[in-house]
Queue: 4 jobs
Job 1
Amino acid sequence: MILGEIDVTQVTLMVNGTQHNEDVSDYMLLADFIREKLKLTGTHVGCDTSQCGACVIHIDGISVKSCTMLAVQADGSNITTIEGLADGDVLHPMQQAFHENHGLQCGFCTPGMIMSAIELIDGKPDISEAEIRQGLEGNLCRCTGYQNIVKSVHEAAKVERR
Amino acid sequence: MYSFNYLKPVSIEDAASMLSESDEHKVISGGMTLIPTLKQRLARVERLIGLEKCGLSEIKLDGELLKIGAMATHAEVSESDIVVMENPAIAELASHIGDRQVRNRGTIGGSLANNDPSACYPAAILALGGIIHTTKRDINAEEFFVDLFETALEEDEIITAVSLPKPDAAAYEKFPNPASRYAMVGVFVAKFNSEIRVAVTGAGEEGVFRCSEIETALLKAFSSESLSDCTISADGLMSDIHAEADYRAHLIVEMAKRAVTKSARR
């Protein structure tokens, strides 16, 4: 379909287990698509320059910064956002670990931190603190609450080990 | 961001033909530099040609050479068993580019085509004497890197893969900018039979370059002690708010020492 000179493309995406068919302009960012079209505002846009990591989501199980990807590039993929982690009222183990270890202060960076951390500890129950700190280098916390974020991720990895 | 159309060709031949149609068309691989550039309106395109359906991400052994498809992401290169076995310095280099999310999207072909003066891959490809395969020809690393953000690629030419010879020893060491994590200086050392090749990124006013002073010093003995009296001229090195040219000259020798030591541990 042509809208003026610019194509509008229909994308089909599975987001948090629900299929969506939506028309998007080709230059729409994936983060904007998720927040504005799907109204899933748990994915945050902090810096909009691919540095802060507040917009991290999973595409086919891999963490990406959704502010630095186009919605059309995600066509046909399976997306998980922060809203897709909890099972009803039961938090995901990573969310639970952040809750128990005071892993958030203002909470703005938390969705991205959690999405990055889930990929980071996958298959690495014995991950070290140094590896966690290096693995989260793409996520910034402006409250500088890294101590408890790292502690939360460490605890979540231990839960995975059990 | 200015508006544009997005195309998804299913073969590299189709992509090259779309690219040749207009100067306003541009190829996108991982987009880790291009999308931020478009968002800041530093670039404007009529059509973006995505290579994701062109199948260029294979990593394999091609005779003696390690052949990495242009669309292989930094994460794929760093975790590839073949790369870890054949050329571990490349795997290690790839594992420290950007952050995890950038490594999940950014590609080797995109990095080389962009030729950012602080990018890590150009140092490795130049030091190893790699070959850049394109839709038109094969280009030696020496001829490929021309100037800042400038390569030998023609307007309608696309990188398809990179081939790398196996060194006897090699390692990469970078001094990352504390904020951006880009290399303020990055040095890749490679030892082949009787030849030493050393390439430096992050420092040169014209981008990546080979460092003959260090190569000559290491020919005597491939050890960090060979560099203890080595000094490098600051001529032609970048000065900016992060580091003066003479500081970069000093860092080049230090990173080279660390890289040589690291290569011996493998």
Note: The mean pLDDT of chain A is 94.
Job 2
Amino acid sequence: MECDVLSRYMDLYLDGELAVQERVEVETHIRGCEGCRRFVTGESRFRAVLRQQMLAVRAPGSLRDQVTEKLKGHRRSSTPAWRPSIAYAAAVAGVAILGYLVIATYPKAQDPVAGAVAAHVASTGLEMSGDRDQVETFLRLHAPFSYRLPVADREGIRLVGARVTRLNGLPAVVYQYDAGGKMFSVAQYRIPEGAAEVQPRLDHQDGFTVATYPDRGLIQTLVGDLPDGEVSRIVPAAWTY
Amino acid sequence: MGLWPIGGRAREATRFDREAMPHLDAAYRFALSMTRDAAEADDLVQETFLKALRSFESFQEGTNCKAWLFRILRNTWFNKLRNGAREVDSDDAMEAIQDAALAGWDDRAFYRAPDEASILRATRDELESALRSLPPDFREAVVMSDVEGLTYKEIADVMGTPIGTVMSRLYRGRRLMRRRLAKAMGIDEVEEEAGGEVVQLFAARSKGEGGHGM
């Protein structure tokens, strides 16, 4: 192994990310090469210094107290993580009676939540930014299925963009909304043929609130940095077209 | 579903205290490195722990809880930052700039010098400001690896990028950091000699300026 080859492996070696065989090769080279040995020694000492100095930075005591208090408060006050509001339940029932609610079916192996959270985090790539009319013009041309705007424009909630993508191997449209400065997105799929029933559900994942619900032949997954109450306020709106 | 049985909730709470609370310092350090502001870091950590408690069911036992908290923290921070879509990572543009900054730099040069005049003597302030000077994506990767000891895979999960991207951010970030640190400490290469074989680490500081007693 030559020094220039070694230098490409050096980070992996020092990070403990090499397989045993590669590790042995690197160590054999280092034993016989003073330049590389000095570099490895210097670099590992520098990392130790960096680590030691930076680990001395600790959360202030006041922060620890605040966090502990907040968690206590949350535990005292929180009802079970989510219970659909009466308005929500009524809306679901109403829609069902009107015959709009298609029994949503979905292949079990595909998790709409995971895909939608990833799409929300990566929502860098809005293909189309603009108001409702602009988004609709874009979607009329590009949507892979007969889309439907998931949330009606109303005070405090504004459609700001969309993109067409694939999530979990299915064509999807991801809409982005601005709810008074907080962004949330809604991923929309067409329900695949012959899949299992999807019940409306609410999850918390990676710090986001995630609501999944069927709506007239489509499945929608709303992902946002929003409190549950806010989400259950937005979700029923999806049923009231 | 999000319904905890009553007895289960108390158990979850204990488990949260055991798994997540020990990472409060790490979360604060990571928040500081992202926000570069103590008050913002405070808020971010509080929000992160509240969300983590609420989402604790989605934490997979046996995985690294610190990395999971970092992911929530990072998502929360970017959510605060973005007004409209988060800016697209400008990796390509960044790479061009970093490559220009690193051209001609031989990382071995850092450790050719005797210890007493090398970056091994950097103070915490100097280290912090060298870290702060890095582009955000590089800084995050370096902090997660070199300070917090996360694996490439864990960092890739936190940042939502492939492992190859993590490796390249680490490679560039580390070298850029060491170079800036050396500059700030007045330890710097003079020039690359013809043939590029030897890069001198120490600027021949003019005697009038003082220096490190060399």
Note: Chain A has a mean pLDDT of 77.
Job 3
Amino acid sequence: MHFKFITIIARQEWASIFRSKIPLALFSVLLVVSLLATFTGWQYVSKFNHQQKNAHQQVHDQWMSQPNRHPHRVAHYGYMVFREKSPLSFFDFGLDSYVGNSVFLEAHRQNTVNMSEAGFSNGMLRFGELSMAMVLQLLVPLFIIFIGFQTISGLKQNGVLKILLCQKASYLDILIGKTAGLTAVVWALFLPLLLVSLIAGNLLITGEIQGETLLRTLLLTFLYALYFLIITILVVAVSAMSKSSKNALMVLVLIWMLFFIVIPKSAQSLGGSLHEAPGKIAFEQAIEQDVSEQGDSHDPDDPHFASLKANTLKKYGVDSISHLPVNYGALVMQEGENISSNIFNEHFDRLISIYKSQNAVSSVLSFIDPYLAIRNISMNLSGTDFDSFTAFQKQTEKYRFEKTKKLNEIHLTQIKYQNDSKQKVSAKNWQEQPDFAFQPLTINQNLTAGGLSLTALLAWVLAGFGALTYVSSKRAYQL
Amino acid sequence: MLEAKNLTKRYGSHTALNKLNLSIQPGEIFALLGQNGAGKTTTINLFLGFIEPTEGSASINGISVAENPQEIKKYLAYIPETVMLYPNLTGLENLEYFSSLAGFDYSKKELGGLLTTAGLQAQAFDQRLAGYSKGMRQKVGIAIAVAKKAKVLLLDEPTSGLDPKASNEFSQIIQSLAANGTAILMATHDIFRAKEVASRIGIMKEGNLESVIDASMISANELESLYLKTV
């Protein structure tokens, strides 16, 4: 490899692309589309967050303005929690449109997250949303194909490659030089656009740039740079292996369809059939069944609650629940809460692990489809991935459990067992409870979740250069 | 300088080139005549190292082509039937690009000198190649070969499609290159041009080199009848 020759060839490739008008025309179309995608993404997210803020405020006000009440009525009054969209969600919608962002929290019940965009679909989703990430993942490869398919095959057809190969530069120098030139063009056109859109959109949505968001932005830019490099290597390799530009274009378009339609769709159904997940109804029924097997607090003869009663009486050294210094009703309710919450968490964890195994299928397939790799890691870093969603669901259940437990404690200590339902406690008791705030995953957690995809992306770069070396060593690909 | 020993290329059962034995000295121009498919281009591709011989060997300057495909590129230059190069670049830029890839760093003046040597008129230097005639492009191809200081020149039907004047100029240029010690192998259909320019002429048929004639010993008409008899 001669670095000097590679530079000369790369420079010539760069110059020849910019001399022709078609690449720039294509680029302007993509520029308009991605600006539009960024703009609509930003508008959607900021509108969404604004609405949610209002809804949250309303819920909170209602909660705070409850009169002095019986604590169990408060527990049933319920509370609604929301998840703000992540600052980078305008860039990559990820799963956000399909999973919910709010949960109604109440005593006894573990509600699952509701209100997804797909649930309220206004038709736009059915046509497929256009995010900037999608433009970069799907359309930029097409752009690379169109500017690069004839980069070597064209030279074969007009005989220039033979003359080039008769100079001192080796075929590998030529292939790497071409790759470098094309990649430089793609980077120069799209990376600044990506960086500026990410920073501008983030500034508009949050009004500031946090260190972590900046780090995510830089990582995303770097990973998309790798992705473009991989696609360019692929285009150059196919072009070098083709006898004519027509063949190269045909093969590349086929690969595009394979990578961007066939494999992702198959990954989905393969994951679904390998690891079958229960439906929502089956999931809830299974929980209900387990709960009723564990113990029914309303059944006086239920063995679990009978032993709870005996133990409590023994603990306080009294012979009847009416003589207990605490409210036995509240104790039973908390016990029921413990049981159902445990069971729910168990089932939920099992469900999550099924979904995770499904997602792992697509992570593994990243090794044969770089699009899956960038799609997964881009979602992770934008905070719109599956793990962000499950983190929300888990945090809400934890918050619900603690809120209810607190109310049961008030019930336990401040409400007498006799004449239970006629008593009230001060509203201060629940007004002092902390509000829910979603803790997004840290960048480390996101990167760990995307580890396999990240490895796949790096493996693709290495494999790409390996492929170029292989192609350059074959005489058959020189003619 | 150029040597083929029992050089054979087979594609399956088809023999494209059969036991070619040929040696071309510095300063010699060897013209290969023959119909399409006679094995002329196969011979040139074997010398260029783009295909591997089935049997025998091709060597340049005593170095085996098959074993050192990169090494022998130092010595040779190649001009195809149609020199396309980069239509978006000017003649001078094309020459600059290709000679820099051969490891030479010429000044603009030197590049201009090379184009003049190749017979290109000065006012065309800074015009884009897209506007060049075939003959003008061929001259840029020659300039690229000269710029490389190649000791061996391989030409694949270089004069086909050239008008008689351009063709004649071309002949003069390659003769002056040979006079400076370049060994030249030229595949052609042009019997008259072969007789004019070559020192020796070989006639090929179905992969075999049927006869080799000293160009000074034969007239164009005799050559033509020999050619027709052979093929």
Note: The first strand of chain A starts at residue 79 and ends at 82.
Job 4
Amino acid sequence: MLQIINLTKTFGSLKAIDNLNLDIPEGEIFGFLGPNGAGKTTTIKIMCGLLKPTEGKVLIDGYDIQKEPEKAKQIIGLIPDHPFIYPKLTGREFLRFIGSLYRIPLKEQEEKIPELFNMFELNQWSDDLIESYSHGMQQKLVMSGVLLHNPKVIFLDEPMVGLDPKSARLVKEIFFNLSKRGVTIFMSTHTLEIAEKMCHRIGIIQTGKVIALGSKETLQENISPDKNLEDIFLELTGGTEYAELLKYL
Amino acid sequence: MRDVILLIKIKLKMLLNGIRFASGGKWIKVTILSLIGASFTWGLYVLFYRILVYLKGVPLLGPFLIVRLISMIFLVFFVMLVFSNIITAFSTIYFSSDLNLLLLTPLSFRSVFIFKFFETMFYSNWMVLFFLLPVLAAYANINSALFTFYLWIFVALFPYFVICTSIGILLSVVLMRLFPSKKTRDIFLVLGIVLGASTYLLVRFLQPEKLVNPDVMMGVMQYLVTVKTPMTKFAPSFWITQSIVSMVKYNLGRSFFYLGILSVSAFLISLVTVLIAQKIYYTGWAGAQEGGKKKKPKVYNSKHRIKESRFPFRFSGPMRALLAKDIKTFFRETSQWSQLLLLGTLIIVYLYNIYKLPLPYFYLKSIISFLNIGVAGFVLASVALRFVFPAVSLEKDNFWIIRASPISVKKFLWEKFWISLIPLLLLAGCLIVFSNILLEVDRFFMILSCATVAILTVGLTALGTGMGAIFPRFNVENIAQIESSMGGMFYMVFSLFYVAVILVLEALPVRMYFFYKLSGKAFFNIKILVILGLIFLVVNVAVVFIPMVLGIRKIKNLEI
């Protein structure tokens, strides 16, 4: 469903992504982990067509995001970590806007929008301007926008930031169910516990290169069988060296 | 006070860093703006010098009239500055983005408030200072003032500005305590625009050009002499006038006396402002951060759906969604729609100027009618700079939604073109049709000018939309930064050049027509007309399509 082939991205002399290759099948929840500045958001932005790759390509259900952007974008949904959305529209107007951009029939919009508001408990604020929404509410509205057009692939960049525990649980359930229905989910996160519980496979990226790839069990087998994902992550990305320093604090 | 100095130092550091890390483009922009500013200041100096020389020559009344004029300038600025300080204070003291950080630190509210006081004072008064300096320099020059007088200007202006800022801030603090909402700021923003537009209309309708006539001028002077304004003695404008006028005459005692009154008043009112703010500022600020009251969920009725599905016009779903979104956001953003008030004023003054033009001869009327096309083009270019050029940039941080959606960049940019073209065509139609009626032009000229202005509108809209996409500025806080950007300047240069080219291309055929009208003989050279027509076509096609194609290409390659 999602193929990343020889993807490289440079910003001046900095190589943000270095010959990345991934193949993610339909219905998989893929966790993309890495320290700050490793290239996670850059990869997601390239996959969504917000950045151009320096080399390589991204295929979404066979469509090259650079060569056939409209067809590829019709089947993807992006939930960024900082969801900037038009502050002078109401929540309902925003969803109508998204629905029309993705050519969802008006009747279908009329049916789905109230359902989404109900599901995310945004009913009370649906006709208020978005500028009065909290970060979590805006995040839920963007998720509603993505779910409205039934994408085949969803990109999540730190999806749980700003969500209360109840909403976070709901979001997890939603993505589990979507994955069961064949939707591919590509998730970048720093919350290793979420990655551990939700993802079928995990990729760890550092300085633009994938340094580990596989299911949680595979990673444990290959790296250290008695360690959890957090320990493996820190071992691979060099986080353990801080332990000595922390003793002095 | 140590904290306030620290905050001011940081602000200065930011300013210096802005200069240190400025790009080449920014230096060019600053140089161009400085040159324009310097020319304006020089022009103002020359104008006031002439006025003052003229007034000084009036027997007996001359010096008196000069003092009255300076006093009036200070009075008018006093009112304007108080209002401008109220509006600026809303932004700096209540809605500035750095407040969340500053009020999180252990700094006292008083320190933050005093720092914001100086910030407001700087933003509100610097432009007035640039206006007052050439005026007072002209006054100093006609009186052959000593060098110390120029220093005195700064010494006297400081407490004058402190008083204006204190009153403005005090009013805004009280208003925000009573009505802690963003709406209060919006209401004052609109009131400010209405005040500015009304003053502009009033000045225009007073027909200042009549002052050129010596008989009328004498009448005005007599009026100024007879008008009694006893209240003025208690206004800061009177004190500063007296202090400056006395200094030019080297009457030190009187000058220091009024400076003393001014300074003591400034100290007292700023002290009162700080003391009151200490009590009520936090409550007002905290209230302003809160959203509106939560309402009951609305029932979404079918009428709304029908209205939306038909509106606007018969565009495709995504195109219609973009149009509806742009229209809604425009009319919900006070800083956007309120500009329409200024636009209305501009049209009224434009038509009034044409109405008042003395055009006794056919020849003169013909030339003015032809040049009117150019003036209308210039007005449209300026309006497009304000409303069309920023269209892409105004997507701001929300642009990721468009880029991640399946709508093509081409459709997105053409939507921006159409949504700008329709209102701009209406404006162009109003300007040219009504001005032509006032100029009593014939049918041929009415058709020619209407067609030309319609074509110019299409060209200017495409130029504005395309260049706005070529030079996008997504990370700006206000629209003025988009207009005054490098791209904005390029747009203005190109658009004025385009209007000039169109006028030049039409000049010869129009000349042929006027000769025909005057002599009754046909002077039409078909060969030249065809060549000019072809060039006209090529220029317009190029102006419409080249910026749009380049704009589409730029957005396609834009990395966000």
Note: Chain A touches chain B through 41 residues (CB under 8 Å).
